[in-house]
């Protein structure tokens, strides 16, 4: 059987490559970058992503590198007054099957990359895919090399090459109107400030989110608490076409003038910052064509206001790998493996399983933006009162606190769902069960 070709070694592509390889398929992973390097930034690993890592057998490795959150606090922007404290473990592990973790991106990525190497995924760095051929399921690299696969999975991120080729037209992600400043600094540096409130903050494994008019900020520990990750979100003022630049520290300080003194003190510690324009995309007409599909940011980029972009990419990856593994098993006795139409049909099944969930995430993140960024006034006061009544079971007008929504987002079992869907598919397509 020809290999599964995965384009892009981000978190989504690696998860897909590892899942397929672990299920007995040959996998070729093509990455444009000549060497693996990661943004120096943190990432939240919500419980659904933790469960996907468990499926790959990598949860134990991740938890030793990550920080398990004791709490996620929403606080008021100018005072730091706690509006809502969410227990990071008790309700979360019980209800959603894994804790809420935070990690350095490099650590998360390294665990997946090492597993890809260990399990025998063929990895080619410096391999940039230029075009995809649908008739023969091929990719052509920038250097002219043509490679043939059984399926091609475009995990090539926000500016995906594969997306336009599946659709037949360019469909770039849309600006959200927000940008992020991202910075990491050492906990040692924070300790040296000798500030009682900062010391209290860093004595616990807590993620703190300051909510303010048109802006919010997120702080959490990474690398076992040796470093802190700070993300400041604000209205976008980058010119069109500019997506990522080094930020002006002074401008950043001025943007958050008058906010909680703890936060402004933290901001004053930042030696260097990156400014990222934030993008998303409305639901795409399709994610697949013949035996080619896309996953992750290539098909459903989102505002990071539910901390779910990578989580969804990793889920996509394990679902594709799982379905391809089941198909491969059912054709194990056939030396030529599954026919192209079976692969195409399995990729369509993947899309049908994943689209609703990922669209729910993109729109949920947009709704969170509205609630996070309420200007001071009656609606903000109502929100703050409602936050005091949250029980994580009942419905609320806000996705972040809506019990049924959170259960679906964080607790949904994507592998169980894929197994059931595959059995149905098999009955219809292969005529047996
Ligand atoms: C400020 C911010 C905070 C975030 N916080 C969180 C969070 O807390 N939790 C969370 O889950 N998500 C978060 N996200 C979202 C998350 O970072 C992304 O959704 C996720 O990294 C997407 O993974 P991916 O594998 O789909 O794409 P990418 O990580 O973009 O990987 C794509 C890969 O494809 C390669 N590539 C591209 N084109 C080609 C080509 N033609 N040929 C070969 N290779 C190619 C690229 O080099 C890259 O390695 C955040 C995002 C931002 C901007």
Describe what you observe in this structure.
This protein has 433 residues and is of the alpha+beta class. The protein folds into two domains: 4-173 and 281-429, FAD/NAD(P)-binding domain (3-Layer(bba) Sandwich); 174-280, D-Amino Acid Oxidase, Chain A, domain 2 (2-Layer Sandwich), CATH 3.30.9. Helices cover 40% and strands 24% of the residues. The chain is built from 15 helices and 20 strands. The strands form four sheets. It has an eight-stranded mixed sheet with strand order 6-5-14-15-16-13-18-17. Strands 8-2-1-12-20-19 form a six-stranded mixed sheet, sandwiched between helices. β10 (138-141) and β11 form a beta hairpin. α1 (11-22) packs parallel to α11 (309-330). The model has no long low-confidence stretch (mean pLDDT 95). Bound molecules: flavin-adenine dinucleotide (FAD).
Topology readout:
Elements: E1 4-7, H1 11-22, E2 27-31, E3 42-45, H2 47-55, H3 59-65, E4 67-68, E5 71-76, E6 82-87, H4 90-96, E7 101-104, H5 105-119, E8 122-125, E9 129-133, E10 138-141, E11 146-148, E12 151-154, H6 161-167, E13 174-186, H7 187-191, H8 196-202, E14 206-212, E15 215-222, E16 227-235, E17 244-246, H9 249-255, H10 261-268, E18 274-280, E19 288-289, E20 292-294, H11 309-330, H12 340-372, H13 378-387, H14 403-411, H15 414-429
Parallel strand pairs: 1-2, 1-12, 2-8, 5-14, 12-20
Antiparallel strand pairs: 3-7, 4-7, 5-6, 9-10, 10-11, 13-16, 13-18, 14-15, 15-16, 17-18, 19-20
